[in-house]
Amino acid sequence: MELGGFDIDAPRWDQGTFMGRLWHFFSITDCRTALLPDARLDEAKALVESCRAGTLPPGTTKEQLYYAKKLYDSAFHPDTGDRMNLIGRMSFQVPGGMAITGFMLQFYRTVPAVVFWQWVNQSFNALVNYTNRNAASPITPKQIGVAYVTATSTALATAVGLNLYTKRAPPLVARWVPFAAVAAANCVNIPMMRQQEILNGIAITDENGNRLGHSQKAAVKGITQVVISRVTMAAPGMSKRDDFVTGAGLVFMVPAACSLFPQRCSMAVSKLEPELRDAIVSQHGDAVRYVYFNKGL
């Protein structure tokens, strides 16, 4: 099959619909890709870049390109093109989340056990949040350290406090406290881990990818959507006491929760900060009505 001019970055499924995004995230959150060696992932990246450059190896098929793009999207950051750490990838959410949730549900009888496993959970979440941030916004090692400490400590205090409340809460309320703890911790961990985006804004572009500036309001919108997605993702696992059921739930809920909102988020120019909005209007007039940005996952 002649593949000249094949646009490998064109969405395979319609990203404007929930079902299209669901199929996309089912593909890139496939936990089997987490088992592949770095060399295989680098081969996929090389094939994707060859396709972009119009220099495909002879005999390359469309299915090979689709699979290479699946591996590329699952393992390489959309902003930088760098390979993401294994634990932070969404393809690792099912095995990683299932193992940690299992330990949290098993070791809950003593305060030290609750504190330790909540710390492990919040450290895991912090790494995932950092890995899937908008990487177009620079962050220093010191800022990463401050973000990690504030994210894990505040989320840990929130989660442990609510979990300890279950010992004196009415049975009906106690049943939902673990989920409330995870939800509340996510509401703290994600903004804290990505606080530099809120403080300094994230890169926004026009429809064609041309950089227009940095927006704090765009960061707030994107991070809010990520918080909603993560709380949704955690819901089934924290309402069950069975590892198999938790794992099965995560297999569906990870891609489903990621699909709630488009990863390439949009925002009306009129909703931006006044100075940024005025700068865009003065330079582009009415030609740019919406800006776009990677909200992260």
TrEMBL record:
Q: Note the topology in the membrane.
A: Multi-pass membrane protein
Q: Which domain of life is it from?
A: Eukaryota
Q: What is this protein called?
A: Sideroflexin 2
* Primary localization: mitochondrion
Family in the record: Belongs to the sideroflexin family.
Instruction: From the Swiss-Prot or TrEMBL record, state where the protein is found.
Output: Mitochondrion membrane
Q: Name one Pfam family in it.
A: SFXNs
**Record gene name:** SFXN2
Q: Which UniProt keywords apply?
A: Amino-acid transport, Membrane, Mitochondrion, Transmembrane, Transmembrane helix, Transport
Classification via InterPro entries: Mtc (IPR004686)
GO biological process terms, alphabetically, are:
serine import into mitochondrion
Q: NCBIfam families this protein is in?
A: mtc
Recall the GO molecular function terms of this protein's record: monoatomic ion transmembrane transporter activity
GO CC annotations on file: mitochondrial inner membrane
Q: Which organism is it from?
A: Scleropages formosus (Asian bonytongue)
